[in-house]
Design brief:
2 copies of one chain form a homodimer. Chain A is an all-alpha fold. In chain A, 78% of the residues lie in helices and 0% in strands. The longest helix of chain A is centred in the first third of the chain and has 32 residues. The structure holds a DNA duplex (30 and 30 nucleotides).
DNA sequence: GGTCAGTGCAAGTACTTACTTGCATAACGC
DNA sequence: GCGTTATGCAAGTAAGTACTTGCACTGACC
């Protein structure tokens, strides 16, 4: 690869990013079929032909978009931030989960539509959340072993994840109801969860 | 209206039902834009022209479909089935919520897509669930007043609803994970909720 | 038997949309 | 200045899609 090619690639990769961003936002609003390539090009401030020259066709573009925004997340920092205090740890995990889920919220919704759930969206959208869910399950298992919590670690993890999931979706669909401080809501939810699962 | 018209109407109303059913199932799979009138007609075993003669245009058809499947639910029998036992009542409410939400699950998902949430789907899909949510909130208020539960009735109702919501969605998206007996899951969830909210 | 609404059928219209293509131009490294 | 590469522009193609229309048929009612 010559120096020229490198420079050229960097120019083109910038337009690629703009196209991906436009695709993403339109996809969230209108869905796969509702989004037209012309709209994407306009939103990205790019000619429609450029879009096809870069990605080949619409499907490949959407695949690239999904992959780009669902790249595997580094979760080491999350794990590193846990300090052993049950409630504090769960709040931190919940906060991370809320953040990652909101990042790909629209893609998650798309993955719930039957047609999309078989495509690339279905798997990719849940990558970060399921990774965190695994962490949660392991955490639960430890705490159960330590006698702090009671129940099945997988069930608890699912419950925990569902709690966050419904919060993220609720905030999107009913913003006026969920106007409260997110931290406070997270703490309330974790509190409910902890009371519910704590061994008594 | 002559007797002939009545008979005719009953014939046409049967085809209307078939069209509505077809619309619904395709809508769930492919979304508003992804569903074509030709597909609907084929699925309903009806000529495409009939579809337009009956409903005028595609939008009106979809509106009619949504309205038809989101008709207000009679909740008296639910209220009547409550007997004052906190846990048993909550299980019954949860079961009703699961059932109604699953009935309109696809429409609920559609209502989460930005474009649809302004249309007729957005409001109609949540009719039954919000009606039940109101019941839940009143129930919670009573139990809080009675000193059995602690917290804000609205928050509790939201939490309760979110719990069920995530279960219904989870069952759709990850059927293998949620293969367990629904009743058992509901009881588990209600148990978690109760422990979480119970005054201590 | 005659009437009439509801439907099937086939063809057609107007529009959108994914995708292409040929050419001019701008950016960049040499 | 020169070649290469990415892009803009404009026009076009092929397919799909919402919706229409005219005609023939059926089946219930009078």
């Amino acid at each position: 690869m010559t120096l020229q090619q490198i420079a050229v690639t960097s120019r083109s990769s910038e337009t690629r990013l703009r196209i991906l961003a436009a695709t993403r936002s339109l996809l969230a609003m209108k869905g796969r079929r509702g989004t037209t390539t012309r709209e994407i090009a306009d939103e990205a401030g790019v000619n429609e032909a450029t879009l096809f020259r870069q990605f080949g066709n619409k499907d490949a573009l959407i695949d690239a978009c999904v992959e780009h925004y669902c790249s595997t997340v580094e979760l080491e920092e999350l794990l590193a931030s846990l300090d052993g205090d049950l409630e504090r740890d769960l709040v931190r995990i919940a906060a991370a989960l809320v953040q990652r889920m909101e990042n790909v919220r629209d893609l998650i919704v798309m993955s719930l539509i039957e047609e999309e759930s078989q495509g690339s969206v279905g798997e990719a959208a849940w990558r970060a959340p399921t990774a965190i869910k695994k962490i949660v399950a392991e955490h639960m298992a430890k705490r159960i072993a330590a006698g702090e919590l009671a129940g099945n670690p997988l069930f608890l993890a699912r419950f925990f994840m569902g709690m966050i999931f419904s919060y993220v979706m609720g905030r999107k669909r009913f913003p006026e109801e969920y106007a409260a401080d997110p931290i406070a809501v997270i703490e309330f939810q974790v509190g409910m969860f902890l009371n519910g699962a704590r061994k008594r």
